[in-house]
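Lecture 7 notes: from sequence to structure.
We start with the chain below.
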Amino acid sequence: MHKCTMELDELLRIIENRRSDLGLTQAEVAARAGRASSTGTALIQNIRRGKDPTFRNVNAICDALGLELHIGPARRSAVQQVMDEHGEPAAVRRIVQTARLATPPAQAARDEDHFATIPRFEAELAAGAGRANGDGVAMELLAFRRDWLRQMGVTADKACLLKVRGDSMAPTLQDGDLVLVDRSRRDDIRDDRIYAFTEDGEARVKRLLRAGGELLLQSDNAAYPTERRKGRDMNRLNVLGEVVWSGHELR
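Predicted C-alpha coordinates for the same chain:
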Protein backbone atom coordinates (compact mmCIF):
# COMPACT_ATOMS: atom_id res chain seq x y z
CA MET A 1 0.00 0.00 0.00
CA HIS A 2 1.58 3.26 -1.15
CA LYS A 3 1.60 6.21 1.18
CA CYS A 4 1.33 9.83 0.06
CA THR A 5 4.47 11.65 1.26
CA MET A 6 3.38 15.18 0.31
CA GLU A 7 3.40 17.64 3.23
CA LEU A 8 0.04 17.09 4.94
CA ASP A 9 -0.55 20.77 5.69
CA GLU A 10 -0.10 21.59 2.01
CA LEU A 11 -2.35 18.71 0.92
CA LEU A 12 -5.08 19.73 3.34
CA ARG A 13 -4.86 23.36 2.23
CA ILE A 14 -5.34 22.40 -1.42
CA ILE A 15 -8.27 20.10 -0.62
CA GLU A 16 -10.03 22.58 1.65
CA ASN A 17 -9.51 25.52 -0.72
CA ARG A 18 -10.99 23.53 -3.59
CA ARG A 19 -13.86 22.25 -1.44
CA SER A 20 -14.62 25.83 -0.39
CA ASP A 21 -14.50 27.05 -4.02
CA LEU A 22 -17.05 24.38 -5.00
CA GLY A 23 -19.22 25.05 -1.94
CA LEU A 24 -19.18 21.39 -0.88
CA THR A 25 -19.39 19.85 2.59
CA GLN A 26 -17.03 17.04 3.56
CA ALA A 27 -19.96 14.61 3.31
CA GLU A 28 -20.67 15.78 -0.25
CA VAL A 29 -17.04 15.29 -1.19
CA ALA A 30 -17.26 11.78 0.26
CA ALA A 31 -20.34 11.02 -1.83
CA ARG A 32 -18.56 12.19 -4.98
CA ALA A 33 -15.59 10.01 -4.07
CA GLY A 34 -17.89 6.98 -3.82
CA ARG A 35 -17.41 6.66 -0.09
CA ALA A 36 -19.99 6.42 2.67
CA SER A 37 -20.48 9.80 4.31
CA SER A 38 -18.82 8.82 7.58
CA THR A 39 -15.90 7.09 5.84
CA GLY A 40 -15.28 9.94 3.38
CA THR A 41 -15.47 12.57 6.09
CA ALA A 42 -12.99 10.56 8.13
CA LEU A 43 -10.49 10.66 5.24
CA ILE A 44 -10.26 14.45 5.41
CA GLN A 45 -10.39 14.51 9.21
CA ASN A 46 -7.52 12.02 9.39
CA ILE A 47 -5.40 14.28 7.18
CA ARG A 48 -6.28 17.17 9.49
CA ARG A 49 -5.08 15.06 12.46
CA GLY A 50 -1.76 14.38 10.76
CA LYS A 51 -2.38 10.79 9.64
CA ASP A 52 -0.73 9.83 6.35
CA PRO A 53 -3.39 9.08 3.70
CA THR A 54 -2.97 6.34 1.12
CA PHE A 55 -2.41 7.27 -2.50
CA ARG A 56 -5.72 5.60 -3.37
CA ASN A 57 -7.63 7.78 -0.90
CA VAL A 58 -5.95 10.99 -2.04
CA ASN A 59 -6.68 10.09 -5.67
CA ALA A 60 -10.37 9.51 -4.84
CA ILE A 61 -10.64 12.88 -3.11
CA CYS A 62 -8.89 14.65 -5.99
CA ASP A 63 -11.23 13.03 -8.52
CA ALA A 64 -14.21 14.14 -6.42
CA LEU A 65 -12.96 17.73 -6.36
CA GLY A 66 -11.89 17.89 -10.01
CA LEU A 67 -8.21 18.16 -9.07
CA GLU A 68 -5.40 16.60 -11.07
CA LEU A 69 -3.07 14.39 -9.03
CA HIS A 70 0.25 14.85 -10.81
CA ILE A 71 3.35 12.72 -10.27
CA GLY A 72 6.40 13.83 -12.16
CA PRO A 73 8.73 16.81 -12.68
CA ALA A 74 7.53 20.18 -11.40
CA ARG A 75 5.37 22.04 -13.90
CA ARG A 76 4.91 25.76 -14.43
CA SER A 77 1.69 27.14 -13.04
CA ALA A 78 -1.12 28.29 -15.33
CA VAL A 79 -0.67 31.84 -14.05
CA GLN A 80 3.06 31.79 -14.84
CA GLN A 81 2.39 30.38 -18.32
CA VAL A 82 -0.01 33.23 -19.07
CA MET A 83 2.46 35.81 -17.81
CA ASP A 84 5.27 34.24 -19.86
CA GLU A 85 3.12 34.18 -22.99
CA HIS A 86 2.20 37.84 -22.73
CA GLY A 87 5.49 39.09 -21.35
CA GLU A 88 3.94 39.75 -17.95
CA PRO A 89 2.36 43.05 -19.03
CA ALA A 90 2.06 45.88 -16.57
CA ALA A 91 -1.70 45.35 -16.48
CA VAL A 92 -1.25 41.83 -15.14
CA ARG A 93 1.17 42.94 -12.45
CA ARG A 94 -1.07 45.85 -11.45
CA ILE A 95 -4.19 43.71 -11.15
CA VAL A 96 -2.46 40.97 -9.17
CA GLN A 97 -0.93 43.57 -6.85
CA THR A 98 -4.29 45.30 -6.38
CA ALA A 99 -5.99 42.01 -5.56
CA ARG A 100 -3.29 41.16 -3.04
CA LEU A 101 -3.99 44.37 -1.13
CA ALA A 102 -7.31 42.83 -0.10
CA THR A 103 -5.51 39.85 1.44
CA PRO A 104 -3.52 39.73 4.73
CA PRO A 105 0.22 39.42 4.02
CA ALA A 106 0.36 36.02 5.75
CA GLN A 107 -1.99 34.62 3.11
CA ALA A 108 -0.22 36.14 0.10
CA ALA A 109 1.11 32.83 -1.27
CA ARG A 110 1.89 32.69 -4.96
CA ASP A 111 0.69 29.15 -5.47
CA GLU A 112 -1.57 28.75 -8.50
CA ASP A 113 -4.34 27.35 -6.29
CA HIS A 114 -4.77 30.87 -4.92
CA PHE A 115 -5.35 32.45 -8.32
CA ALA A 116 -8.03 32.31 -11.00
CA THR A 117 -7.67 33.75 -14.49
CA ILE A 118 -10.28 35.97 -16.15
CA PRO A 119 -10.31 36.80 -19.88
CA ARG A 120 -9.86 40.35 -21.15
CA PHE A 121 -11.81 40.91 -24.32
CA GLU A 122 -10.90 43.10 -27.26
CA ALA A 123 -14.32 44.83 -27.31
CA GLU A 124 -14.44 48.19 -25.51
CA LEU A 125 -17.24 49.87 -23.58
CA ALA A 126 -18.23 53.31 -24.80
CA ALA A 127 -18.62 55.73 -21.88
CA GLY A 128 -20.44 58.36 -23.89
CA ALA A 129 -22.44 58.00 -27.07
CA GLY A 130 -22.54 54.45 -28.37
CA ARG A 131 -20.01 53.56 -31.03
CA ALA A 132 -18.85 50.56 -33.00
CA ASN A 133 -16.62 48.16 -31.11
CA GLY A 134 -14.09 45.48 -31.84
CA ASP A 135 -14.94 41.80 -31.77
CA GLY A 136 -15.58 40.03 -28.49
CA VAL A 137 -12.30 38.13 -28.76
CA ALA A 138 -10.31 37.22 -25.65
CA MET A 139 -6.93 38.94 -25.89
CA GLU A 140 -5.32 37.60 -22.72
CA LEU A 141 -5.95 36.14 -19.29
CA LEU A 142 -5.38 38.20 -16.16
CA ALA A 143 -4.87 36.71 -12.70
CA PHE A 144 -6.93 37.50 -9.60
CA ARG A 145 -6.74 36.00 -6.13
CA ARG A 146 -9.54 33.50 -5.54
CA ASP A 147 -10.23 34.71 -2.00
CA TRP A 148 -10.49 38.30 -3.26
CA LEU A 149 -13.00 37.19 -5.91
CA ARG A 150 -15.03 35.35 -3.26
CA GLN A 151 -15.01 38.49 -1.12
CA MET A 152 -16.38 40.39 -4.13
CA GLY A 153 -18.99 37.68 -4.75
CA VAL A 154 -17.56 36.98 -8.21
CA THR A 155 -17.10 33.59 -9.88
CA ALA A 156 -14.18 33.61 -12.30
CA ASP A 157 -15.89 31.64 -15.07
CA LYS A 158 -18.80 34.12 -15.03
CA ALA A 159 -16.64 37.24 -15.28
CA CYS A 160 -14.75 39.14 -17.95
CA LEU A 161 -12.61 42.25 -18.32
CA LEU A 162 -13.32 45.12 -20.72
CA LYS A 163 -11.77 48.51 -21.37
CA VAL A 164 -13.69 51.79 -21.03
CA ARG A 165 -13.52 54.47 -23.73
CA GLY A 166 -14.84 57.97 -23.16
CA ASP A 167 -15.38 60.22 -20.14
CA SER A 168 -19.13 60.12 -19.48
CA MET A 169 -18.61 57.98 -16.36
CA ALA A 170 -15.79 60.13 -14.94
CA PRO A 171 -14.61 60.45 -12.28
CA THR A 172 -15.80 56.94 -11.33
CA LEU A 173 -14.53 55.38 -14.55
CA GLN A 174 -11.80 57.06 -16.55
CA ASP A 175 -11.03 56.74 -20.24
CA GLY A 176 -8.86 53.64 -20.63
CA ASP A 177 -9.90 52.01 -17.34
CA LEU A 178 -10.10 48.25 -17.18
CA VAL A 179 -13.34 47.03 -15.58
CA LEU A 180 -14.33 43.68 -14.13
CA VAL A 181 -17.83 42.67 -15.24
CA ASP A 182 -19.81 40.05 -13.31
CA ARG A 183 -21.91 38.37 -16.03
CA SER A 184 -24.03 36.52 -13.45
CA ARG A 185 -25.61 39.86 -12.44
CA ARG A 186 -27.56 40.64 -15.55
CA ASP A 187 -31.17 39.63 -14.96
CA ASP A 188 -31.98 41.46 -11.73
CA ILE A 189 -30.91 45.07 -12.29
CA ARG A 190 -30.23 46.91 -9.04
CA ASP A 191 -30.81 50.66 -9.09
CA ASP A 192 -27.81 52.99 -9.19
CA ARG A 193 -25.33 50.24 -10.02
CA ILE A 194 -23.02 50.48 -13.03
CA TYR A 195 -23.71 48.00 -15.83
CA ALA A 196 -22.09 47.04 -19.10
CA PHE A 197 -24.62 46.51 -21.85
CA THR A 198 -25.09 46.53 -25.60
CA GLU A 199 -27.62 48.67 -27.41
CA ASP A 200 -28.17 48.08 -31.12
CA GLY A 201 -24.90 46.13 -31.16
CA GLU A 202 -22.83 48.88 -29.48
CA ALA A 203 -21.20 48.18 -26.11
CA ARG A 204 -21.75 50.84 -23.45
CA VAL A 205 -21.41 51.42 -19.69
CA LYS A 206 -23.83 53.48 -17.53
CA ARG A 207 -25.67 53.56 -14.24
CA LEU A 208 -29.08 51.97 -14.73
CA LEU A 209 -32.17 52.97 -12.77
CA ARG A 210 -35.81 52.01 -13.12
CA ALA A 211 -38.31 54.86 -12.78
CA GLY A 212 -41.94 53.94 -13.34
CA GLY A 213 -42.10 52.34 -16.75
CA GLU A 214 -38.78 53.81 -17.87
CA LEU A 215 -35.17 52.75 -17.70
CA LEU A 216 -32.75 55.60 -17.02
CA LEU A 217 -29.19 55.55 -18.35
CA GLN A 218 -27.21 57.91 -16.13
CA SER A 219 -23.67 59.21 -16.53
CA ASP A 220 -21.51 60.20 -13.55
CA ASN A 221 -20.14 63.10 -15.60
CA ALA A 222 -22.67 65.96 -15.23
CA ALA A 223 -21.85 67.13 -18.77
CA TYR A 224 -23.79 64.19 -20.15
CA PRO A 225 -27.60 64.22 -19.87
CA THR A 226 -29.61 61.28 -18.57
CA GLU A 227 -30.96 59.07 -21.34
CA ARG A 228 -34.40 57.48 -21.08
CA ARG A 229 -35.67 54.23 -22.54
CA LYS A 230 -39.23 53.02 -22.38
CA GLY A 231 -41.53 50.60 -24.13
CA ARG A 232 -39.89 48.80 -27.05
CA ASP A 233 -36.71 50.85 -26.68
CA MET A 234 -35.98 49.04 -23.42
CA ASN A 235 -35.77 45.78 -25.35
CA ARG A 236 -32.89 47.16 -27.39
CA LEU A 237 -30.66 46.86 -24.33
CA ASN A 238 -28.88 43.60 -23.61
CA VAL A 239 -27.24 43.74 -20.17
CA LEU A 240 -23.83 42.04 -20.14
CA GLY A 241 -23.31 42.28 -16.39
CA GLU A 242 -22.55 44.55 -13.46
CA VAL A 243 -19.26 46.42 -13.20
CA VAL A 244 -17.83 45.42 -9.81
CA TRP A 245 -14.23 46.70 -10.00
CA SER A 246 -12.10 49.05 -12.05
CA GLY A 247 -8.40 49.74 -12.34
CA HIS A 248 -6.57 52.61 -13.98
CA GLU A 249 -3.13 54.07 -14.29
CA LEU A 250 -2.27 57.19 -12.30
CA ARG A 251 -1.89 60.05 -14.70
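Points to note: Residues 1-5, 86-111, 130-135 have pLDDT under 50 and may be disordered. The chain has two domains: 8-65, 79-247.
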